[in-house]
Design goal:
By secondary structure, the chain is an alpha/beta fold. The protein contains 8 helices and 10 strands. α5 crosses α7. The two termini are 33 Å apart. The chain binds S-adenosylmethionine (SAM).
């Protein structure tokens, strides 16, 4: 099994909490997407790279006791968190499987849907992942992706040069760990090569002000990833403080807006 440290964002408690907040701010978008895709009571959903399972729990409640969610994840910390939540919420319809998506086989079952969010960016061979998905998804089933399509859309207005330097470190460290921030752009080709037909593709991008709830998403990412970059020896405390100071002054400016990193939603049907 791969070590916890292999994953560039980490699997520590702060990251677990950050993923929770990230799920909550995105929940309205995600619920709308799942509804458009057709997820409903009784369906069987494969959650690919489920993390601590924030989406898996919502999915389990939507599909209900006659449906099922199969959550695949590599991190034992995240798996333990998901197990605890399932027990606390008495959810018996979530099956959790510890698997490295790059090394193990995906479990076969008659899935109606696959859900994959912010995972393709972090695997070192997206084509292998989509090939494996193509093998387990049955004819007529639907694969749904929310992945970054153009990470550099993430910017402040007016521009914040310390943020742009920070963003470049993010992109560089993801690439150095074998991932690709703009992974979504490869998906149409990979899906086509593996028997999927795209039903819909749409961008999700927001222009936020500090009072918006979604503003907290990049805020918590900046804080946790500054610490991560220090741990990696990539930046020093002075750099981190300069980012924090620039960010704090931008937050006080009533004209500040933040464009979010572009997320591409793809809904594709297996032929
Ligand atoms: C940014 S998190 C997203 C988690 C979840 N999909 C969500 O939307 O909240 C990426 C997840 O992919 C998992 N992951 C990355 N590479 C993996 C691999 N090779 N095998 C299994 N899981 C992997 C990480 O452990 C982490 O939980």
């Amino acid at each position: 099994m791969a070590a916890e440290g292999d994953y560039v964002l980490g699997t520590h408690e702060d990251e677990l909490a950050r993923l929770g907040l990230q799920h909550r701010v995105w929940r309205p978008v995600v619920l709308d997407c799942w509804q458009r895709a057709g997820i409903t009571v009784g369906k069987r959903v494969l959650d690919v790279g489920a993390g601590p399972g924030y989406a898996a729990i919502d999915l389990a409640e939507i599909v209900g006791p006659i449906g099922e969610v199969v959550a695949l994840e590599r991190s034992q910390n995240f798996i333990r968190a998901l197990e605890t939540t399932c027990r606390a919420r008495s959810l018996a319809n979530v099956k959790i499987q510890e698997v490295d998506l790059m090394k193990g086989d995906l479990p076969t079952a008659d899935y109606d849907f696959a859900w994959c969010r912010w995972v393709v960016s972090f695997v070192n061979d997206p084509s292998l992942l989509i090939k494996k998905l193509g093998r387990v998804m049955q004819k007529g089933s639907v694969a749904i992706f929310h992945e970054y399509g153009h990470y550099e859309t993430w910017r402040f207005l007016p521009r914040l040069s310390m943020h742009e330097r920070f963003r470049e470190h993010v992109i560089a460290t993801w690439r150095e760990s074998g991932g690709e921030p703009d992974a979504a752009v490869q998906l149409p080709r990979l899906l086509g090569e593996n028997g999927f037909m795209i039903r819909s593709a749409r961008p999700h991008i927001f222009c936020l002000r500090p009072s918006d709830y979604m503003w907290q998403w990049p805020v918590t990412f900046i804080e946790t990833y500054l610490e991560r970059l220090i741990e990696m020896g990539r930046i020093d405390h002075k750099f981190a403080e300069e980012v924090r100071t620039a960010f704090a002054s931008a937050e006080k400016n009533p004209n500040t807006r933040m464009l979010t990193p572009l997320v591409l939603e793809i809904i594709a049907e297996k032929l």
